[in-house]
Each structure stands twice: as structure tokens, then as C-alpha cells.
Specification:
- It is a single chain.
- The chain is of the alpha+beta class and 113 residues long.
- The chain has one domain (2-106): Alpha-Beta Plaits, CATH 3.30.70.
- It contains three helices and six strands, in the order βααββββαβ.
- The strands form two sheets. A four-stranded antiparallel β-sheet has the order 2-5-1-6. Strands 3-4 form a two-stranded antiparallel sheet.
- The chain is flat, with a radius of gyration of 16 Å.
- The two termini are 18 Å apart.
Length: 113
Amino acid sequence: MQFMMLIHHDDELLAAAPPSLWNEYAAFNQALAKAGGTSGLRLEHASKGRAVTQRNGKTELFDGPYMESKEQFAGYFMMDLPDVEQAVQWAARCPSAQYGTVEVRPIWPTRPQ
């Protein structure tokens, strides 16, 4: 079963993180790769983003993050694991769990061709 780990950082906590965080991430990425997971991509700061909605034929554009919250979507990882319990264990190992929230979501299964 495929899972996505969605990383949501608290910008203030992340800014105060020790430089060793990136070494922790290197070790995490290495362990994840050995287990068959794949690294996703790290996103730029939420303030550099734009959010677009279409309502009643009108386009609305917002600068920065879509939601007003302390945590912002920062990146993701992909994993192929037998069950959600193992995905949760990986999320708990993720260094970002110390600086925000790591959400685990199953990937919607595709229909057989």
C-alpha cells in the first residue's frame, strides 16, 4: 500500500532548529531509501506561494499560504508499506515531527487497466 508523508513545518520552530537537523534528515533519507521509500521535494517558504480559487466564474488569487495557520506545507515523502501503522512509525522518525506535524495519507488505489 502506498502512503504519502506530508510535512507541515512551524516556521518559528524550524528557524530555531539546530544545524544538525540537516544531518538528521540525511540519515532519515538514507534509511527511508533502504526501506524502499522515496524522497519527495522540499518546498520554498509558504510566503513565496500563491493560492488560486475559481468560484462562480471568478478567479481569486491570494499571496502566500492558502490557510492561515502556524504550520505550512513544506514537502513530502512517498512510502510503499504493508499498513498504516508502519507509515505512522516512519512519520514519527521524520526529523520534521519535532518542528511541526507529519501527516500520513494513503494513496487512492488506481483502478486496474
